[in-house]
Amino acid sequence: MNSVFLGIPLLSVIGGIMIGLAAVGLYYSLGRIAGISGILFTSLGRNGGMWRWMFVGGLISGAGIMAQLLPEMNVVTRPNPGLIVLIAAGLIVGWGTRLGSGCTSGHGVCGMGRLSIRSLAAVGSFMAAGIIMATFVRHLLGVA
Amino acid sequence: MSIRYHQNIQPLAGLLAGFLLGAGLLVSGMTDPGKVLGFLDIGSHWNPSLMGVLGGAVMVSLLGFQFAKKMKHPWFDKQFYAPTKKEVDQPLIIGGLMFGIGWGLAGYCPGPALAGLALGNPEAPIFVGAMLLGGVLQNWWATRNK
Question: Is the reported ipTM for this assembly greater than 0.90?
Answer without folding.
Answer: yes
